[in-house]
Amino acid sequence: MASKQEGSAIRFCRKGAWTAEEDRKLAEYIETHGAKKWKTVATKSGLNRCGESCRLRWLNYLRPNIKKGNISPDEEDLIVRLHKLLGNRWSLIAGRLPGRTDNEIKNYWNSHLSKKIYSTKITDGTTGAPAAPPPTTMAKVQVEVQATHHHESQADNTELSFGVGDSLDDSVEGTSAMDCIIKFLELDENPPPPPPGPNH
DNA sequence: AATCTGCGCAACCGCATTGGT
DNA sequence: CACCAATGCGGTTGCGCAGAT
């Protein structure tokens, strides 16, 4: 019986907007069992949804400590700077903005900031290539950050700062972490003179 | 008052990466 | 060491709402 239901759940993933009832079921299940093994979550929670769909819904909407809307000028500035550094690594950028999701930042960038940046570039006369060509792998991100700062040790710190495993939890993401990023970004704006080293 | 256009948000799809067997 | 499955990420699309004409 159960196996049949599970099978159908996997084969016929419901699509479209989530209902309040689905949200409740998902939240209830995750509260009890935790947010892991999304395929299992999808089947055991009684939702005819794909695991990926459940994950997205949880991360972008149901998860606690999520801020909705009202992106402050500070956050906007941070997003612009981080995007300049990291390119379209939305999850990394989101990791530095407590309570924000990669999807929200991505949407915000696409609808607001990209236009803003573009018009700024037109004004500056610096048209052409995007702020940061999107690297395809984390390794490339590291290389890019290193290249940006022309300083190995700094790049190493950066890599630590931008750990992917960071959660959006406000309790973890303290002011000091944010301060660290802001400092880091200040360095990006006013980079110290590169030491005479192996770096070009 | 009705229609059209643009904007913002939520969700889906495909690809890449990582972990386990 | 190779293969398979699961997970995560980024890009793109669709839907609904608000404002302008």
Automatic annotation (TrEMBL):
It is found in: Nucleus. Keywords: DNA-binding, Nucleus. Signal peptide: none annotated. PROSITE patterns: HTH_MYB, MYB_LIKE. Residues 10-62, 63-117 form the HTH myb-type domain. InterPro entries: Homeodomain-like_sf, Myb_dom, Myb_TF_plants, SANT/Myb. Residues 14-62, 63-113 form the Myb-like domain. The keyword DNA-binding applies. This is Transcription factor MYB114. It comes from Coffea arabica. The lineage of its organism: Eukaryota, Viridiplantae, Streptophyta, Embryophyta, Tracheophyta.
